[in-house]
Amino acid sequence: MFDLIPFRRRGRREIMDLRDSIDSFVSGIFEDLGMMGTAFKADVKETDNEYIIQAELPGFSKENINVELVDNYLTIEASNDEILEEERDNYLRRERRRGSYRRSFYIDNVNEDEIQARYNNGILEIKLPKKSPGKKKKRIIDID
């Protein structure tokens, strides 16, 4: 019987092998560049009382995550120790990477003493309560 796709039976395996070779080559180009400085995904929400940052950091332990606030910049750093020597004997494909990630957010008008952070199921959630607005003074200015 005639197939609509020529060489279907004989050429399919060769095409798949070629695709895998190209994929391996392209992946290998970026393999040695590491993950330093790569940004992770984060959502930033604002409510009436606080800012909430939710950052995706799957695969990290809480001990390897650092959060600090300096000069109104909230910086989140997460790192896994990179394994340079590893056994590759049984891997068919290795996509999980180890490295360091860092991201900063400019945050203004927050009460620094009440910032809270929680890490659960690969999501780091940071709550930054806003400073309560002080009572605004009304001043009448005399005109000369």
UniProtKB/TrEMBL annotation:
Enumerate the InterPro entries for this protein.
Answer: A-crystallin/Hsp20_dom, HSP20-like_chaperone, Small_HSP
A Pfam family that this protein carries is HSP20
Q: Which UniProt keywords apply?
A: Stress response
Domain SHSP, chain residue ranges per copy: 31-144
* Gene3D superfamilies referenced in this protein's UniProt entry, alphabetically: 2.60.40.790
Q: What does the sequence similarity comment in the record state about its family?
A: Belongs to the small heat shock protein (HSP20) family.
Identify this protein by name: Heat shock protein Hsp20
Species this chain originates from: Halothermothrix orenii (strain H 168 / OCM 544 / DSM 9562)
